[in-house]
Amino acid sequence: MENSATTRVQEFIGDPVADAPPVSRAKLEEIFQDIQSDLRFDHELNGCLNCGICTATCPSAHYYDYSPREIVQLLWTENLEGIYDAMQEKIWACAQCYTCAARCPFGNSPGGLVMLMRETAIKHGMESAKNVLRPFSRVMLKLISTGNQLSPDMISKDAFPDWGPNISKVDAPLAILRKAIPVPTLHTTKTAWEVNLKTSVELYTIWEETGVLDSLKVIDANLFDVIGDIMDEKREDYADWLEDQEE
Fold it and tell me: Domain ranges in the chain?
């Protein structure tokens, strides 16, 4: 009787009792390749002593199930299953403060690596990315459709109830605190600067050519359609303006 070929290599990842379909090894390799092929990858990952300095100084590690050292170790050892698992929740706990990068004796940047993993999660339309970005759809709409910043007085518990219970803490005397912002024109929506039509169209073209809008379409197709309609209108207005200048 012939013995069947066996392997210890895990071909699929996933909870065997969950409804979610398993992830094939080919898909895991594709995800890792997208992370590794980024030009920033070799700059952000140089090795790991497993000393734990990054985690010891990480603010997020004190409050969440998150460890910068774990992120570095997963990528350094090319742990495909662990990388995919971390992209489902853990990478979204990073505050991007880069304290880890400033402390690492090897010159690693766990925060930078998390950024690459987040971008890859968006590219692959992972549910974790959709869940994290969904509450910020209105912010993204303003930034992408106008190129403008958000002014402080836009952040209020009434305007963003979907940000969760912590938004109630915005009851602080913000009018007084915002006087510390050095640029006066950024204090309120009434005085916030507006991007002119030409600049707005140019910004949209940049986001279009660099793939930003392709990523947005994967994450939120409805928002993509809304922004597309807005910018098509602006392009028409700009074309009309150019014609008027030639007359």
Answer: 20-124, 133-246
Question: Token pair of 41, please?
Answer: 């990858």
For residue range 29-57, what is the model confidence (pLDDT) as tens digits?
999 999 999 999 999 999 998 999 999 99
Q: In the prediction, which pLDDT does 1 show?
A: 43
The CATH superfamily holding the domain 20-124 is: Alpha-helical ferredoxin (1.10.1060.10)
Backbone angles phi, psi at 13, to 5 degrees: -125, 145
Q: What is the pLDDT of residues 167-199, one digit of tens each?
A: 566 565 666 666 665 555 555 555 556 678 888
Predicted TM-score of the model (pTM): 0.73
What CA–CA distance (Å, rounded) separates 120 from 215?
10
